[in-house]
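note to self: dont lose this again. the chain is below, predicted strucutre after it. 370 aa total, dont forget to put it in the shared folder this time
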Amino acid sequence: MTKEYAEVLADLDDLDKRRSQIEPLAETAEDSEIEERSHLIADMESRYESLLRRKSELEAEERAAEQAAAGRGKVITTPREEERKTMDIASAEYRDAFYANLMGAATDEQRAALITVADNAVQIPKTLDDKIWDNIHTVHPILNDIDIKNTGVILEVNKHTAITAGAAKKVAEGAANATAANTFVKVTLAGNDYSANVELSYASAKMSQGALEDYLAEEIAADLGDALAADVFASIKRDIGAAAVTVAASASLTYANLTALFGSVKRGTNLKVYSSRARKYGDVLGMVDTAKQPVLRDGVLMNEADYREDAAAGDDIFVLDPKKFVLNVVQDTMIETDRDIKNHKIIISGYVRAEGCMRDNGAGAYATFA
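---
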């Protein structure tokens, strides 16, 4: 065993111990500590993967040397760590290796450079990941507005449901206020699976790298974005509870309904309104007074909130502070591939694991149409 190999093993053992100590703390961390500990865990994972790769190289060198000594092969020399050009997901080389592997044309070196995140799945290039999320945010602004934590681990958060005692108030001199008694519940965000499948014929897969990347980003973003956004709105409804306003199916939304909806939001500062385009133009901006004149104008909603079009809101209209919703991403976007040799197709599957909840049930309200 060489000195470097022993040092690598020692470093791996040390990182294992540190991860086992830090990961449980990250799951129960306070809000102010979550991002810092998430970055620390990510740095440790990156260092761990680098050490594993170096360990494999040293073992390969040792096997090659043993074979050469026995007359069964030749010594293979690997460049030193500091001289080796490593690939990361943001590099052009990694992007080339990813698409070459996707089309079944990767060299051994390119396949070895790909970062494996699960069985038969590899980490996607940063350019593709950025395009997927840019497309998702464009179509579903709710996913750009909420508080997304890329922790990579199961997260436990405290959800504020009520102040049952101890709210601030005027008291006599020398008199103490009641001790604060906020109602919190612990919510464990272990993640739900979201996936999208794309099939390409062998001929279609021969398109240029840029065109293939744009196609995958658009197709995967469309399916994953729809599923994620719909689930976020469903979680918001679940956490808030009953609708603040219910409009009969045969009736129209009124100005009184709209003001009651805003008035039902107990807490939250940066309020935004979310609805489908049909609800926005047909019900909100379509409201008229007794003289048949528009009550509101496009882009103006009582100077109270930004208006967002998001089809995933369905038939409901939401008013909320989106930063009071936290989405824990346990597994960021990854790509799995397979081949249907009978029908000559490449099957590409995008996958994300995430789960979220409202931090404060009083930071939102919604109107529904029965």
